[in-house]
Specification:
The structure is a single chain. This protein has 485 residues and is of the alpha+beta class. It is 47% helix and 14% strand. The protein has 16 helices and 14 strands. The strands form four sheets. The chain has a six-stranded mixed sheet with strand order 2-1-10-11-7-6, with no helix packed on it. β1 and β2 form a beta hairpin. The chain is globular.
Length: 485
C-alpha cells in the first residue's frame, strides 16, 4: 500500500481495540469522534491527504524501491545533499500546514525509523536476524505509511535507587520470559505522545547499567501494534475544545500524551531489534545518528512555528497601533533575528553535510545541535513578548457565544481594534490567550524547553561534536607565538 489517505488513517485508528482510559472511563466508540482526539485526527488526516494532492505529491513522495508506488519522502534515507534538500522541502510542507504545533507529526517518527534503518548493519554483530528485522520493519512502515508513536522514558518509580538490584522485583520495563513465539515484556512508559492516535509504538528504553552475568533483561528495542493484548493506554486531561473560535490551537493541534503499560505483552521475534545486550543499546542509538536526522525534521518545525508567532505579533501590533513604539520594534527584531538564525542553520546543516560511513549522508551536526540549544530559550522568550505586548488584554476575552447575545451590539463597539472588527480582534486575542495563558500554550512551552532533553544534555551534544577539533585552539596558539618574535 502506498501513501495513505486521511480517510484510511482515521479508519485504522477507529478500528483499534486497545484499552484506553480517559478521566476514569474506557474510551468507547470511534476515537475520531472523541473530544480528546478528534481535532488532532482531523488535522493529521489533512496532512496525509496532502501527499496525494496532485499539486504536492511530487514534492512530498518518492517511488518505493519495492514496487515503485509513491511513499512519504520523510522515509527517504538520504545519500546526497539533494536528498536532504528534498526531505526538508517535504517536511516543511507539513510543518507549515500545522504551523509547527505538532511536535509528533508523522514525519518525526518516519525520520526516526529511517535513521535506525541506516544503522541496521551494526546489529549483525549480535544477530543477522536482528538486522534483517529492523530493515524489514522500516520497509513495512514506509510501504504502508504507518503512523508511529514512540516510548523511550520510564516512570520515575522505575529508577528509585536500589530497585535494580533485585531483578525480579524491579518495576522498570523488562523481559520477564522468553518463549518460542517471542519475548514477554512487562513495564510502563511515560509520554508516548499520540499513543492513542497511532498504528504502532516503537519502544527503546535506556537499559539498566547494573551488571548482569548473562543477558540484561532491561536492554531491548522493538516495535508493535499499539493494541496488542496486554497493552493499556492512560491519557492525561485534554486541552481540546470543539470551538475553533474560542480555542483556535487546541481544537486543531492538541496531541494527547499517554502512559503506555505493557502487562505480559508478547512481542514476536520478527519485531525485536535487539535484546539482552546493554552495549548494543547505546551503539545502535548513537550509530543511527537519531538526534541529527530528527534534528533536521525538528528544525523545519521550529521555523514554521517561529513564523506563526511572528505573524501573531505583527497582527497584535497592528490592532493595538503599536508599530511606532521603540520597545515593540526591539522585541519584534529579536524574534526576526531568531527566525533568520534558524533559517541560516538549516542551510548550513545541508551545505556542510557529511557521509556517515555506511553509504548515507548526514546534515552537519553542529548547526542542528546549535538550533536545539537556541530554540528552548527562543520559544519561551517569544511567548513572553506576546504576554508583555498583549498585557491585560489577553485576560478579559469574551467567547464566541457572547456575539450571539444581546450584548453583541455593545461588544461590536467597545472591542473593535485598529482596522479590526470586534469579532476579528477577539479571535486574535483568543489565540494569544491560548499561546500565553492557556493549558495548551503551557504544554507547548514546556515541550519546547525539554524537547531533546534538559539544557545540560543538549549542550553536551553540541560540545561533543567539537570534541577533538583543535583548529580554534591552534589558531590562538599560533597567534600568541607570533607575539614572542
Amino acid at each position: 500500500m502506498p501513501v495513505k489517505s486521511g480517510k484510511q488513517y482515521i479508519e485504522r485508528i477507529n478500528s483499534q481495540s486497545v484499552p484506553c482510559w480517559y478521566k476514569g472511563e474506557l474510551v468507547t466508540g470511534k476515537r475520531s469522534e472523541h473530544l480528546a482526539f478528534k481535532g488532532l485526527m482531523e488535522t493529521q488526516a489533512q496532512l496525509y491527504d496532502m501527499q496525494s494532492d496532485p499539486l504536492l505529491a511530487g514534492k512530498m513522495t518518492y517511488e518505493s524501491p519495492v514496487d515503485g508506488k509513491p511513499v512519504g519522502l520523510s522515509f527517504l534515507p538520504p545519500t546526497t545533499v539533494d536528498d536532504l534538500r528534498r526531505r526538508r522541502e517535504a517536511m516543511s510542507v507539513w510543518s507549515n500546514a500545522h504551523h509547527g504545533f505538532l511536535g509528533r507529526s508523522p514525519d518525526y517518527m518516519n525520520t526516526a525509523i529511517m535513521s535506525f534503518y541506516t544503522a541496521a548493519e551494526l546489529l549483525n554483530e549480535l544477530s543477522p536476524q536482528y538486522a534483517e528485522n529492523l530493515r524489514n520493519y522500516y520497509a513495512f512502515c514506509r510501504d504502508n505509511d504507518i503512523t508511529l508513536s514512540h516510548a523511550f522514558i520510564q516512570p520515575h518509580a522505575s529508577k528509585i535507587s536500589g530497585q535494580m538490584d533485585a531483578t525480579e522485583d524491579a518495576i522498570a520495563a523488562k523481559v520477564v520470559e522468553r518463549t518460542e513465539d517471542g519475548l514477554i515484556i512487562t513495564g510502563a512508559f511515560m509520554m508516548a505522545t499520540q499513543g492513542a492516535t497511532c498504528d504502532e509504538i516503537f519502544v527503546y528504553p535506556s537499559p539498566s547499567p547494573a551488571p548482569f552475568d548473562d543477558e540484561n533483561p532491561f536492554a531491548f528495542a522493538f516495535a508493535v501494534p499499539n493494541d496488542l493484548p496486554g497493552i493499556t493506554l492512560v491519557c492525561r486531561d485534554t486541552y481540546a475544545s470543539e470551538s475553533r473560535f474560542n480555542f483556535p490551537l487546541s481544537s486543531r493541534y492538541e496531541e494527547m500524551d499517554n502512559i503506555v503499560i505493557f502487562d505480559h505483552v508478547l512481542v514476536p521475534h520478527d519485531r525485536i531489534f535487539f535484546a539482552g545486550n546493554e552495549e548494543m543499546s547505546s551503539r545502535l542509538f548513537n550509530g543511527s545518528n537519531f538526534h541529527i536526522h530528527a534534528g533536521h525534521q525538528v528544525l523545519c518545525r521550529y521555523i514554521a512555528k517561529t513564523e506563526f508567532i511572528l505573524g501573531t505579533l505583527q497582527l497584535l501590533t497592528d490592532t493595538l497601533d503599536l508599530a511606532s513604539e521603540a520597545h515593540v520594534v526591539e522585541k519584534t527584531a529579536r524574534v526576526l533575528a531568531g527566525l533568520e538564525s534558524l533559517k541560516a542553520l538549516a542551510i548550513a546543516a545541508e551545505a556542510g553535510a557529511v557521509p556517515d560511513g555506511r553509504g548515507f549522508i548526514l546534515p552537519a551536526p553542529q548547526p542542528l545541535m546549535a538550533a536545539n540549544i537556541l530554540y528552548p530559550k527562543l520559544y519561551p522568550e517569544m511567548i513572553e513578548i506576546i504576554q508583555l505586548m498583549a498585557s491585560s488584554g489577553m485576560i478579559m476575552v469574551p467567547q464566541e457565544e457572547e456575539f450571539k447575545t444581546d450584548a453583541a451590539t455593545h461588544l461590536d463597539i467597545y472591542l473593535r481594534g485598529t482596522d479590526m472588527t470586534a469579532q476579528q480582534r477577539t479571535s486574535l486575542f483568543r489565540l494569544i490567550w491560548e499561546l500565553g495563558a492557556g493549558s495548551f500554550g503551557g504544554r507547548q512551552t514546556q515541550f519546547e524547553r525539554f524537547f531533546f532533553g534538559n539544557s545540560i544534555t543538549v549542550s553536551n551534544r553540541l560540545y561533543l561534536t567539537y570534541s577533538g577539533v583543535d583548529t580554534y585552539r591552534q589558531l590562538v596558539s599560533r597567534f600568541l607565538e607570533d607575539t614572542h618574535h
